Queue: 2 jobs
Job 1
Amino acid sequence: MQTLVLCKPDAVRRNLIGEIIR
């Protein structure tokens, strides 16, 4: 998952982090 987040842009990364926090 970390590799995917790193590969994806900041916007997508923030979206994923927000979803996880939620």
Job 2
Amino acid sequence: MFSVRRANIDDLQLIVDFQIKMAVESEGVDLEEATINSGVGAVLKGEVTAEYWLVESEDGPVGMMMTLPEWSDWRNGVVIWIHSVYVRPDYRKKGAFSTLFEHLKNQISESSELVGLRLYVDKGNHSAQQVYKRLGMSAEHYDLYEFMKY
């Protein structure tokens, strides 16, 4: 029913649209389109170490996530961080995100370099938290602290 592919520059506007919708829905934040366009473009042009993945149905792309690597000296391997998860409302609870997640888990299982997955989720996004728990992730080890310039 679903397939996964790495996004490319032709997907720029779609990902920008998904990002804007995701920010409003999950955190109540209105992103400036020019800024997010530059940020997504940097990923798709290979200017930063990150990738976008799209999940597709017969209707085309229905969801996305961005991944980035983090070196773990404790595990002597790379942990993949999941960011910017978005699935169109009409495809939620139908396996779209699970397909993306399983795609990453398979990559980790098949790689000697990759050792795990991590993500952070807004404390108020309870529906996403339940999805991640159902997929076998735990929130038991860490709290996230941040300092942001803006």
